[in-house]
């Protein structure tokens, strides 16, 4: 099919020039045969032009398609006509695994199915001689010398962990995603981006929590209000404040990060970890039994947890729009512009007490008062509540 | 327990204790969350096998995971035992959705999106045993012959594609036969050098034992006669080896 190949190779220019000069509308073209017929007609017209001796406009270096004389609308129309001709050519590729979609569009907790986990190789454990018997509950059986992790157990634990991440994000907690192996950095960063959390893909510096003031003391911190807007003017006060610690740590390779998980345990921080058949499930608060050696599995798990964090953050901001705050604001900060720096907390508490007294005639119990103060502090928001983040 | 560290597990209780004893001014933000979504049970081991009777010295395997066995496994060992080189074929292990095997219809041995493999033979055999009610051996033979037919077609396709490529100007690197011949030639040359050295050593040793001139060996005519006798057996010679038979023809 020499004619067709010529038309395809030079078709763009030939069709373009012909369209401009002859208004060759290809709106009825549906099949390749019709396109071939068109190109045959064009070649025949070229032939007649040659025979008649009329000078043919030579294809210049800059074809008519890109000439300045045609408007954007004409160019777009040309493009659309060419697209219609060429769109249906080529083979039909059926749905298949596209690795980049796990990072660009990760699955959410509702999309977690056993088939997804199977395709992500989450069921492949280590050799049977290397197992930790504490994981016996998560193992389905032995095949080809390795332990096979039960995918229904994996799915259940993953959904549980994602709910924890969602709720902690909703309450404005600091979530840290850690993945220090080769190739885990993109997954961990993407999860942190979605959940508006923090990531770590290089080696954890031992003592970052237990000796945080020394190691992270020089890190910048900032004050944000409930709508995630930075509130300026707190630099001096922040300088004296203690270093922040995460409220939840998600570790994707706990076998290499024992020190991090131990520091979290010492400082009473809940942890989530991907536990393989040779890992110790007591190192983390919420184990997710899965294959930590497969990058695809890690991308699925980190993606799901990131999506859960994203949902939690969305809930938090929606409530903030309505004026409800889901967290306990930072204590000991004075709004900038105030003269009195020493009586920060009592002032705030005084305000709450005054409000409470205005609302009720008499208060019977100290417990009742403390309950009312707590309720007030937790739920009320008048734009002056503040939260410290780094 | 002594060896276990349950601090990650008891994070909530510790937070409550610290708050109740006024060590911490407030409860952490995750306190309610961890209370509503408690961590799963840890270190529990399910019983999987029957316990051993009393009075036996070996430890019980009650808690060890069970092997996963499928009926196809025996068929696989049979097929790959008969066709060991099928194991050498490269295999694509990446799955698309996990539901790849759902659309397969084993009334035919070739499935779209699946390599023609020993696995296809085994699945086809199972289908025939189940649906066409063939015996295991009969189903194996039917599936096997379909497999051979499609492998033959594949080989023809590959050969024709190579010929087409060569005829339109493609060039390839050295094939395995060519590389093998080069390696053999190199080994042959190094052996020749070694052999000549050995001959020299032997001659010198013989010369030491006896006095007087040693004979030079065969004369020119005698050497030619001897060579003619030995010629067909020598691999690296001009005449080459006599052909012993034709190439195998597929049934």
From TrEMBL, chain A:
Basic and acidic residues biased stretches: 369-390
InterPro entries: Ribosomal_uS2, Ribosomal_uS2_bac/mit/plastid, Ribosomal_uS2_flav_dom_sf
GO molecular function: structural constituent of ribosome
Gene Ontology biological process terms in this record: translation
Keyword Ribonucleoprotein belongs to the record: yes
Keyword Aminoacyl-tRNA synthetase: no
UniProt keyword annotations, A-Z: Ribonucleoprotein, Ribosomal protein
Region annotated Disordered, chain positions: 368-390
GO cellular component, one term: mitochondrial small ribosomal subunit
Pfam families found in the cross-reference section: Ribosomal_S2
CDD domains according to UniProt: RPS2
Family: Belongs to the universal ribosomal protein uS2 family.
Protein name per UniProt: Ribosomal protein S2, flavodoxin-like domain-containing protein
Species for this entry: Clohesyomyces aquaticus
From TrEMBL, chain B:
Transmembrane regions listed in the UniProt entry: none
Entry GO terms, CC: mitochondrial small ribosomal subunit
Swiss-Prot/TrEMBL keywords: Mitochondrion, Ribonucleoprotein, Ribosomal protein
Compartment list: Mitochondrion
InterPro entries (UniProt xref): Ribosomal_mS23_fun (IPR016939)
Molecular functions (GO terms): structural constituent of ribosome
Pfam families tied to this protein: MRP-S25
Family membership noted in the UniProt record: Belongs to the mitochondrion-specific ribosomal protein mS23 family.
Protein name: Small ribosomal subunit protein mS23
Organism name: Clohesyomyces aquaticus
């Amino acid at each position: 099919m020499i004619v067709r190949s010529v038309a395809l190779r030079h078709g763009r220019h030939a069709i373009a020039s012909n369209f401009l000069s002859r208004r060759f509308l290809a709106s009825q073209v549906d099949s390749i045969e019709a396109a071939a017929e068109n190109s045959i007609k064009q070649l025949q017209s070229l032939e007649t032009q040659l025979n008649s001796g009329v000078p043919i406009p030579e294809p210049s270096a800059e074809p008519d398609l890109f000439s300045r004389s045609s408007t954007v609308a004409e160019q777009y129309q040309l493009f659309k006509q060419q697209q219609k001709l060429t769109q249906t050519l080529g083979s039909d590729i059926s749905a298949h695994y596209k690795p980049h979609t796990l990072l660009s569009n990760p699955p959410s907790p509702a999309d977690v199915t056993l088939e997804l986990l199977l395709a992500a190789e989450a069921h492949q454990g280590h050799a049977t001689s290397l197992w930790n018997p504490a994981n016996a509950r998560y193992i389905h059986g032995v095949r080809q010398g390795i332990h096979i992790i039960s995918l229904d157990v994996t799915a259940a634990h993953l959904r549980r962990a994602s709910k924890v991440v969602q709720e902690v994000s909703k309450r404005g907690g600091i979530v840290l995603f850690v993945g220090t192996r080769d190739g885990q950095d993109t997954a961990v960063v993407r999860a942190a981006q979605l959940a508006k959390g923090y990531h770590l893909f290089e080696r954890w510096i031992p003592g970052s929590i237990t000796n945080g003031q020394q190691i992270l003391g020089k890190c910048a911190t900032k004050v944000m209000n409930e709508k995630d807007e930075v509130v300026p003017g707190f630099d001096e006060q922040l300088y004296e404040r203690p270093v922040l610690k995460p409220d939840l740590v998600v570790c994707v390779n706990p076998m290499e990060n024992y020190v991090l998980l131990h520091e979290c345990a010492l400082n009473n921080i809940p942890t989530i970890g991907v536990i393989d058949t040779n890992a110790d499930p007591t190192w983390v608060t919420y184990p997710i039994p899965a294959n930590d050696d497969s990058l695809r599995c890690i991308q699925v798990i980190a993606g799901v947890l990131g999506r859960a964090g994203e949902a939690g953050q969305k809930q938090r901001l929606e409530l903030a729009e309505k004026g409800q705050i889901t967290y306990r604001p930072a204590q000991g900060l004075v709004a900038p512009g105030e003269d009195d720096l020493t009586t920060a907390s009592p002032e705030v508490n005084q305000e709450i007490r005054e409000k409470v007294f205005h609302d009720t005639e008499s208060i019977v119990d100290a417990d009742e008062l403390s309950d009312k103060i707590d309720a007030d502090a937790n739920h009320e928001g008048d734009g002056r509540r503040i939260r410290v983040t780094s | 327990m002594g060896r276990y560290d349950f601090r990650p597990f008891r994070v909530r209780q510790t937070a409550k204790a610290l708050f109740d004893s006024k060590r911490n001014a407030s409860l952490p933000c995750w306190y309610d969350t961890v209370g509503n979504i408690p961590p799963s049970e840890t270190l529990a081991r399910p019983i999987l096998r029957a316990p051993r009777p009393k009075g036996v010295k070996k430890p019980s395997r009650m808690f060890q995971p069970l092997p996963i066995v499928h009926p196809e496994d025996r068929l696989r060992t049979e097929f790959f035992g008969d066709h060991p080189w099928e194991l050498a074929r490269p295999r694509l292990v990446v799955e698309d959705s996990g539901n790849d095997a759902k659309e397969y219809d084993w009334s035919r041995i070739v499935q779209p999106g699946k390599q023609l493999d020993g696995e296809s033979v085994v699945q086809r055999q199972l289908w025939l045993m189940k649906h066409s009610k063939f015996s295991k051996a009969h189903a194996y033979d039917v599936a096997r012959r379909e497999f051979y037919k499609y492998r033959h077609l594949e080989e023809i396709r590959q050969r024709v594609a190579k010929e087409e490529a060569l005829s339109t100007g493609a060039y390839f690197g050295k094939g395995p036969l060519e590389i093998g011949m080069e390696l053999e030639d190199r080994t042959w040359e190094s052996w020749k050098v070694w052999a000549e050295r050995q001959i020299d050593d032997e001659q010198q040793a013989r010369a030491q034992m006896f006095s007087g001139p040693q004979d030079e060996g065969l004369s020119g005519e005698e050497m030619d006669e001897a060579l003619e006798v030995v010629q067909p057996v020598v691999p690296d010679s001009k005449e080459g080896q006599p052909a012993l038979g034709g190439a195998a023809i597929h049934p």
